[in-house]
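My current task is to audit a protein record that another person submitted. Please read both lines and tell me whether the tokens look consistent with the sequence. Do not assume that whoever made the record got everything right. I have pasted the whole thing underneath without changing anything:

===
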Amino acid sequence: MKILVIGFGARAEELIAQFPPKLDITHMDSAPSDQNTVTGYDVVFDLNYGQGVSTPGAYDRFTGTLVVGGVCTPLVSMTAFDVLQPDTLIGMNLLPTFISREVKEWSFLNDKSRKAGDQLATALGWTFLEVDDRVGMVTPRIILQIINEACYTLQEGTATIEDIDNAMKLGTNYPYGPFEWADRIGLDHLVDLFEALVMEDSERYKICPLLMDKYWREETFYPKT
């Protein structure tokens, strides 16, 4: 199986680390610019697609399985506006920290793509949970709300960043506190997801001003190491 991973930074590294050894894997930081780039690959994991980065035309004649980050943009939108074949298109939660989970989230548009997903899961030895083709999928929606509420708590001066993180980890057994999780996911990814969810429900996903301010200032909740 020949696999192409398109994306950059820690997220691409997290994905590549999940593949079994001895697979034929190629990694590209930037988006494909033409159809020849993806020729000959059985599977393409495009971490950028649906975020205004990758070039849709590159997949016009692609016959393999295309796995995209279906968190900010649902698959149905991708097939409606781009030349993508729903039979081999799979949406996956490709946000940082979620890629390496023991059970991964993905979505399909039909039975043919679901079959392609089953074959891929078997080949990679991964366990998946199928979710509806919705913005945010399941787990990111929940974590996003927790992070947002934690930001409101911090903004009101109720508790410190460290106290809130420690309380959540001790009380819920979460792997990270909300602020540590926000830094690990990346505020840019969080804001992109917030903006996508606001299109569905503007009130429920109203972003905390403190979180937005951190994003605009390109800051993190904990010092960068």
Observations:
- The CA atoms of residues 20 and 124 lie 6 Å apart.
- The mean pLDDT is 89.
- Helices lie at 10-16, 75-81, 111-124, 139-155, 161-172, 178-185, 187-198, 209-216.
